[in-house]
Amino acid sequence: MKRHPKYLFYATLLDSFQDYLNSDKIYSKYWGFSENPPFSEDEFHEKKRLELIDRINRVPMKWEDSAKADRGTAFNEIVDCMIGNRKSDKMQIDRIASPEDNTLCIALRATYNNREFIFPIDICRKFAKYYKGAISQVYTESLLQTKYGDVKLYGYIDEMLLFCICDIKTTTNYSAWKYKDYWQKIVYPYCLGETITDFEYNVLMIKEYSTGNVYETFSEQYSYDADRDIPLLIKHVENLIDFIESHRDVITDKKIFNEHETNNTISEA
Prior knowledge:
The chain is α+β, with helices and mostly antiparallel strands. It has 2 domains: 2-13 and 134-267, no CATH class; 69-132, no CATH class. The protein is built from 7 helices and 11 strands. Strands 2, 6, 7, 8, 9 and 10 form a 6-stranded mixed β-sheet that branches. A 3-stranded antiparallel β-sheet has the order 3-4-5. β3 and β4 form a beta hairpin. α1 (11-21) runs antiparallel to α3 and α4 (63-84) crosses α5. The radius of gyration is 20 Å and the shape is globular. The protein starts with a strand and ends with a strand.
């Protein structure tokens, strides 16, 4: 028997929706005590609403945001190539040699979307060593039953180890448990049928200074519990459905409503 999902949600879209829901907390964190904030709390909430609609409609990101996203993509690809001992088919990756010794590699440079990103070789090796034996970029999907009908959840797992699902993050600003409200840690174990319940966010923080960049690494560990997490996931997905239905008139990318094709079904045993 085949079930035809009514909505298609990729995992990171649930994170974007969470950012919108958390707009008051985000505003308070960065500008709550500012005497001259760049916008009011209501203006910031509206800004996050419009950003979410743009994300749903797959509007190209602003230069600053796309640069950050490309940097994360570049670092992920470097790590994947080192794990798989292969060359990249997505971007140009070159070694940077020491000025004193041409045989000594000190960094890797990735050229992607006409941008160059440089990462110290010791950082790249640290991540690749940790993920030794992992399967990279694993596509996963599953149906979630909601009061509005079936929703297909899908996404790509950065690195899948034997007993742990891992997601690589790059950021310029990190605080403890930064990703605790993100949904990949629930969506991916759910899609895998709970065969792996441990989840890690492995974070590379890059602080940029005039004298050079400073790199730090952090990890956040979570454990998936179906009895606890599936009801939370259903509620969050239903709230997202409420949002997109109330904004249907401004949503131009109909993929989210599964209107882009008629054969998007999942077989059910």
